[in-house]
Each structure stands twice: as structure tokens, then as C-alpha cells.
Structure prediction request, 113 residues.
Amino acid sequence: MHEMSLMESVIEIICETARLNGARRVKSVRLDVGALSHVDPDALLFCYDAVRHGTLADRARLEISRIAGEGWCLDCGTTVALKERFGACPHCGRHRVQMTAGDELKIRDMEVI
Ligand SMILES: [Zn+2]
Prediction:
């Protein structure tokens, strides 16, 4: 389960950021997780509960936003919805679609006190 190491990195980053800003603890964290990123939000939540104890984020609330897959079709020259990595363009059916969204795992923001 690679979600465990991802979550450990997230906790590390937010705790370090909180420390650098002189915060006493982290209140909440918002993550963006792309639908095509091969990261399972439920697994992330599970791992979050496992790794936050004893850190500044001990009682922080975690919110996960799912970001839909999106690509740029080189043949149509338009932005199209992507249901899978390297998926076909829904307009022309070709596969020259560059993924522009849906691949991310990022910390959108966090609240500290
Ligand atoms: Zn197309």
C-alpha cells in the first residue's frame, strides 16, 4: 500500500510547515487527489489515522477533494474529460491526449493554531 508512505510524507510536510510558522498544532488539512493518480482516498484516510499520532497534526481534520481527469487533445485542440490514463479523446476517438489534470496528489491548504 503506497498510500502509507505518501501519507507519511504529507504529515512530514505539514508538521514541518507548522513548526516553521510557529504553530502549536494543525487544525485541518485539505488534499487534492487526482482521479487518475492511482491513489485511493479511503486508503489515504486510513493511513492518516495511523501516522498522525504524536505529531502536531494529531487532531487535525483531513479533507480530500477528488480532481477529475482532464486532457488536451492534440487532434481536436480542445480540453476533454479523461476517464483513464492514455484514454481516447471522447470527440475524435484518437489517443493523442495529453493529461492536464487528474494526476495530482497535493496539499491544497492547511489551518494551524
Ligand atoms: Zn480529439
User: Anything to note?
Assistant: The mean pLDDT is 96. The chain is about 25% helix and 35% strand.
